[in-house]
Design goal:
42% helix, 289 residues, 2 domains, 11 helices, alpha/beta, Rossmann fold
Length: 289
């Protein structure tokens, strides 16, 4: 029997994850008081209940009862019972945007406080439980389908899970560098398809543009060297405890060269079994003008 506790930052997607797990055949319970977990585990293990997989959503909505979670987990583990912890993280600026869009208050918000203060306080309270987590997923840049796919790999396919989520972002320098990038690569040295009439209106997602960009030795060598660099960096980032790596690849407009090379890097990382997502921030901006 598999027990997974789903916890993490409020607004990071716990309800969505529980829905996905339910679709995967898990018996899901949300907002259970931590003190009830041991008895609930015993109940689920009664043979007549025929429950194979369980996911419990637990977070700071439980108020002071949430503080019992660490002690309860220690008690369960000392008894030799296996419980996995899935921690959902998210950048503060993304959480703030989500709260503003839904017009909901943060659960820890005191009267007269700003949402950002509640987010900061919650992150401090969750520090210990995050350090105990078996899996950490940062949902800051994940689309819903990408989150579902990653959960499928983790839960159903039993793939080895690294607690480092890699985000590859293509962008255009004329629209500014993404503020959350850890590494930025400039590919404006590669010949620009923008000046080829039949390629101008296309993007790096089109085969013709991809073939044009990758026909240059510089493009092939760049792709190889960046991947080799990341193969060295990633294990060291994981060892250091980093849980998210954002890689920006930029060209002038973010439509041709950066998209092509971001796709190349994404495919190389995915084929190497890393946890990776991709987005093309500026791919449609010229078309909207």
């Amino acid at each position: 029997m598999r027990f997974i506790i789903v916890t993490g930052m409020s607004g990071a997607g716990k309800s969505t994850v529980l829905r996905f797990l339910e679709d995967m055949g898990f018996f899901c319970v949300d907002n259970m008081p931590p003190g009830l977990i041991p008895k609930f585990i015993d109940l689920c293990r009664v043979p007549s209940n025929e429950i194979e997989n369980v996911a419990l959503g637990i977070d700071i909505r439980g108020g002071k009862m949430f503080n019992q979670l660490t002690d309860v987990l220690n008690e369960i583990m000392n008894e030799g019972r296996k419980v996995e912890i899935l921690f959902l993280d998210c950048k503060a600026e993304v959480l703030l945007k989500r709260y503003k869009e839904t017009r909901r208050n943060h659960p820890l918000l005191a009267k007269g406080e700003r949402i950002a203060q509640g987010i900061m306080r919650e992150r401090e309270l969750l520090w210990d439980i995050k350090n105990k987590a078996d899996y950490i997923i940062d949902t800051s840049h994940l689309l819903t389908r990408e989150l579902r796919s990653q959960l499928g790999e983790l839960i159903l396919d039993n793939k080895n899970f690294e607690s480092l989520m890699i985000s590859v972002i293509s962008f255009g320098f004329k629209y500014g560098i993404p503020t959350d990038c850890d590494l930025v690569f400039d590919v404006r040295f590669i010949p620009n398809p923008f000046y080829i009439d039949e390629l101008k209106a296309l993007t790096g997602n089109d085969v013709a543009v991809r073939d044009y960009v990758m026909k240059w030795d510089e493009s092939v060598e760049f792709s190889k060297k960046v991947f080799d660099l990341l193969q060295f960096l990633i294990p060291n980032y994981i060892k250091e405890g980093k849980n998210q790596l954002v890689i920006g690849i930029g060209c002038t407009g973010g439509k041709h060269r950066s998209v092509t090379l971001a796709n190349e890097l994404y495919n190389n990382l995915k084929n190497a079994s890393h946890s990776v997502v991709i987005s093309h921030r500026d791919i449609d901006k010229d078309a909207k003008k």
